[in-house]
Design goal:
The chain has about 230 residues and is an alpha/beta fold. Helices cover about 30% and strands about 10% of the residues.
Amino acid sequence: MKPLNNDWDEIIAEEIKAPYYLKLREFLKSEYSRYKIYPPMEDIFSSIRTTSYADTKVVILGQDPYINEGEAHGMCFSVKHGAQIPPSLKNIFKELHDDVGAKIPNNGYLMNWAKQGVLLLNTCLTVRAGLSKSHAGKGWEELTTFLIKKLNEKQSPIVFMLWGNDAKSKQELITNPIHKVLTAAHPSPLAGGRYFGSKHFSQANMFLKSHGLKEINWQIEDIILFTV
């Protein structure tokens, strides 16, 4: 694992020596050598590499990475410029528009959120192409449980948005009363629209403001599309 170059390095230094994590590493070596795995190996830890522990004030917790080519890059629900916006993210943008009036963008790159302190984390950080939850139960859940427990220890307020049953399973880890926990159905179309109306974005900003913290600018800027 390459250095993250922020405070997460020290926090996870001992955890990545644990037997379960070493076993997970061997599993991943085999998977990446035999199959198409998402995200690319160098992007697995993009979420904690981009959003430091100290800067985290919102956590969006999803399930596992996107399963199609060119989508997953290590931040839950985000896709890089040039990728089509997946159905789950389209639903997130619709809810965002209905909740806070944000314009629906022409891209799904959520880096602007991450740089403001929104940790975009999945419960499982890798997946085999085309097979959702194919890396479930291999050790990622233990690592993300560890990360959530460490975030729970923070004495500055965090808003935890838990979307879907896998994410909701972490709710019991968040015991510090200084934090706020918001739960909702997964934004996938398979959830039958039960995600809509959750109003997590406005609730998060009201909570941050009430604690004297800077609100998140949820607007994702359009990319300029050049035509010849």
